[in-house]
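Colleagues,

Please find the record for the two-part complex below.
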Amino acid sequence: MQGNDILSSVQNRVMLYIRKYKMIQPGQKIVVGVSGGPDSSALLHVLMSLRGKLDAELIVAHVEHGMRAQQSVEDAQYVVSMAQRMGLSVYVKHCDVPSYAKEHGLSQEQAGRIIRYDFFRQICRYRGCNSIAVAHNKDDNAETILLHILRGSGLDGLVGIRPVRGDIIRPLLDVSRTDIEAYCAAAGMNPRRDYTNNDPSYMRNRIRLKLIPFLSQNFNPNIVDSLVRMSHILSDDNEFLSMCVEEAFKRSVHIDDDIAVLHIPDFKTLHKALQRRLLRYIISKLKGDADSIEYLHIEQLMAYIEQGCVGQKLTLPADIMAEHGNDKVYIYLQCAVRIMSEPFCYTISVPGDTYVKNGQAVLSSCIIDKSDITDYNSNVSVAYMDADKVHFPIYIRNRRPGDRFMPIGSNGHKKLKEYFIDEKIPRIYRDSIPLIASDHEILWVIGHRLSDTCKVNESTRRVLRLTYKTTGYNE
Amino acid sequence: MQGNDILSSVQNRVMLYIRKYKMIQPGQKIVVGVSGGPDSSALLHVLMSLRGKLDAELIVAHVEHGMRAQQSVEDAQYVVSMAQRMGLSVYVKHCDVPSYAKEHGLSQEQAGRIIRYDFFRQICRYRGCNSIAVAHNKDDNAETILLHILRGSGLDGLVGIRPVRGDIIRPLLDVSRTDIEAYCAAAGMNPRRDYTNNDPSYMRNRIRLKLIPFLSQNFNPNIVDSLVRMSHILSDDNEFLSMCVEEAFKRSVHIDDDIAVLHIPDFKTLHKALQRRLLRYIISKLKGDADSIEYLHIEQLMAYIEQGCVGQKLTLPADIMAEHGNDKVYIYLQCAVRIMSEPFCYTISVPGDTYVKNGQAVLSSCIIDKSDITDYNSNVSVAYMDADKVHFPIYIRNRRPGDRFMPIGSNGHKKLKEYFIDEKIPRIYRDSIPLIASDHEILWVIGHRLSDTCKVNESTRRVLRLTYKTTGYNE
């Protein structure tokens, strides 16, 4: 192909690809991540040429990784001068990826990625941009797919790199590396070269430098296209399955106080494929991702749900716990439950408002006439007590060993623990249920039952009204 | 591992695997396909050792391929003597795979597979067996998965070899080739070696001999396990998707006279992943398989369903056609429609029965009194005509150019073709609709309308009753 032909051919293909995946809408502002290498230099050049048609504003961002000494600095200079020649704003962040990686126990690859995307998002917010364009190409995609295959991934990995994911767009994802190199040459660009790309200690580099040539020579000259086509078919399948999982989640799970409650009878009606995916989905809802959870762990969790019994616990990596409770399984992060269960105790001001747990809840108290009781029993977060039978001071706190309670209507005290067991209150919730207590006994298990010892009856004159409200405010 | 350890270890694992996939039930008879190589020799030995526990009867079958001259004959002798030593019946088929392959335009690999499975099934029926055990192992599975990846397959290919498929069971599918070799050695067997397995002109052999060693050396020493684990996860996903497709098929497709009628509004409610799979499923229902249909063809069909218009046709490979008709798309094999549309014409005996198309249908006629008409108009396959207005002889036939028809209630003749268009009868059906005709005109479009020219009215005396019945018998 002649120089101008390759330029317009790539530009047209990218234009169609942007339209196909609705990457850029007219009037939008786009951060373009540019390393100075061939891919991102070509990306910037292509987007620049399409800027009018797209009606988009471009802003360049570059991270100088501090990894290749003088070369790294020259990369930044190259990007800045390219952007300036094009009349675009350019933002550069200088950082020390190796130190960051060491500090956070990450590989340099991972650390670089985190720092880059953080910076791009920062510029995105600062300049009011709509999305971030990065320069992955078709060969990168094939390499990613192979990487997942070699590690034995599920469908999620086999779908490869997505054209659009959240605020990230990848306009070059359907262009081959060969075409990108030809494009750079035809455009008279002399992009920077990152020689660490040839370092065979990275698996991705070995895939690019050794495996793909080996496969195209011995098996399939169009291996990159075949892999990418496979990923297209699979990504539709994967999308459909994800949709089914979201429906299953709505039907059989609710998340309550950071604890996912899975309804077992509903779960059992699901196909095994959806069960596995639903468990992974629950974990990623609780944790933000399910990266540290492997196939084996999901199998353990499946077996536990099938065979475990009430009270038995399952510990998984990444602080994840599962606990059976009748026809439910509770799945949660231990740290979240630990925070919920931390001991707390506040003396209640009567009358007045008592703020509980950094303002997450408030307990209001006042003394009223018996005739002013309006909504007797209608509300689990309001209680009326015979003020003359209550031994002040009273407290709002969570349970302690030895707590005693005489549920209203019963004929004697029992251990609070026994009350919880009788009422089938799951163990994980027991430490976080707020209680109203005197120095002698529990007066009210908030949300559940009052004590018989302070109940309002015909002889009551003064009434203590307590109202418990969660604020949803958690700092 | 010591000799006895490897024997019992493999036997135990195979036993669990057979149970897990419910491969063999007590009292069943199993055909074991034995080539004489290490895999199938080990399979026979393992099944023999488990025969008591399984309570199964074993029958050995061997195909002598006529491909490796004297060696091939010795393979057969080896299998026969092994079976006889074990006291088992053994059936051997001698054949000439290369000639068969040439004759049917197949590769020798394909031809061998067809001949083998045909023979195994023949023995299976002859001896009243329940299933056929074949000796694929874990490495074969990994190789198959890679084969599909290299060709750019969809999920269907990535699931690899199934432990059970129809009447085929694969008890060794979870045992590695290394373990099988060790098993043979420990059992004192000296199985036959097929040196064509080292021929690098077969892609599968290149995968085994070059690619897997390359991958385990450079990327993942447990590549076989990783691939197989991946296929397990994917096969659950695939099974679930297949289930969804079967449901979608029931909802939005019916097959009528070898023509699949796809209801477009229903089709459009489906996720793209299901749409693709449904189309492939329809084709395999019509054709027996969808092997010759590639990704690209399904995409063409998707676009045609989305954008095509009434009357326009789409031709796909393997004789498959699609044709729009209002809110439906007809998908069919051209050959099937061609057979349905072949010209036919039979003179009707009055009174009497006229057999149509090799007995696929029968037309009964008789003359009755007008007062004997019982079910006027209630049945589309019965017609009453004024016998005195009919010009005999009359025929049952399909349409011919120039046919004329005056539908009952209309005020003049029109071309039959126009009638079909007005009634929105899809083109593909028009050639196969049976007609009753005199030498002058069409008297009855069976299943649709009568002619006005011979309708029964107050002046009618003698009535011709015609009854059309399909027999469902198609030779």
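The domain at 3-230 of chain B is CATH 3.40.50.620 (Rossmann fold).

Comments are welcome before we finalize the supplementary table.
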